[in-house]
Amino acid sequence: MSAIAMSTAGVTVNYAVEATVGTRPTTGYIKIPSIKSVPEMNPSPETLETTDLSQTEFKTYVEGLKDLGGALAFLANFTPELEEAWNTLLEAYKEGKGEGKSVWFEIKHPRLEKSVYFTGQPSAMGLPAMAVNSVLETNLYITPTNAPAWETKSTTAEG
Question: How confident is the model at residue 159, as a pLDDT?
């Protein structure tokens, strides 16, 4: 039996602010509109050399930490709806942070049983690059504050 490849059609990027500090929300996620691409969150672990003097031919290693590389860039079409939604997210982040709460981000694929979740800090949007005869796009930056993890999908009317 061969595996069936999947399309990325229908993938959503959503967010929710914790209701209880330290607890990931399972419902109430809000879709961020106009997302065109999601960055890879599958970095290779660093390798830490452990070779001792008894080795005569090969070095030995152990797995180290993984590095997502700082802020993650989510490519999106720049629209008035996106700008409004992102500003709403920034306000929710600031309000939650003032109460000690985190914002959780969810990357949800319609055909997978689980979603990827992580807490993060969204950055304010700047002015995107513009060129003749092109779509106005922007990168939305989110700095992860914990490791991404596969967990049960959220329940929400938006996907």
Answer: 45
